[in-house]
Write a structure and sequence with these properties.
mainly beta, five-stranded mixed barrel, 7% helix, OB fold (Dihydrolipoamide Acetyltransferase, E2P), 113 residues
Length: 113
């Protein structure tokens, strides 16, 4: 009897940035326009924030966070390159201080649309 072929991994679903809060704890893709950016170079961990949908400090925004240890993986400064672009960010949606976010560890997690 032949061995069954395993099913391919399920592709993550794609949701709008404004629905991300309803999907905390899920691994998925979130899309939207990058409307506000900041490289907090003076903060602990030197995070780069790509705010999608609404600018900081609006709590309804969605944020892609790139920590300093992953920043050098990007060919250009993320806060310059992605500003104004519509992107898909794939990863585990978490919540920080009421804001849905995905931690981006590799540029492959961000696709331009």
């Amino acid at each position: 009897m032949p061995t069954p072929t395993p099913a391919p991994p399920k592709a993550p679903s794609v949701i709008s940035w404004d629905k991300a809060k309803d999907h905390i704890g899920e691994r998925t893709s979130v899309y939207g326009a990058v409307v506000d950016v900041k490289w907090a170079s003076g903060s602990k961990g030197q995070p780069t924030f790509l705010n999608i949908g609404n600018p900081y400090p609006d709590p309804s925004r969605f944020t892609a966070v790139i920590w300093i240890q992953n920043r050098s993986k990007f060919p250009e400064a993320p806060e310059v390159y992605y500003l104004g672009k519509t992107i898909h960010v794939t990863g585990l949606i978490t919540e920080y201080k009421g804001v849905a976010q995905i931690e981006v560890k590799d540029p492959s997690q961000i696709q331009e649309r």
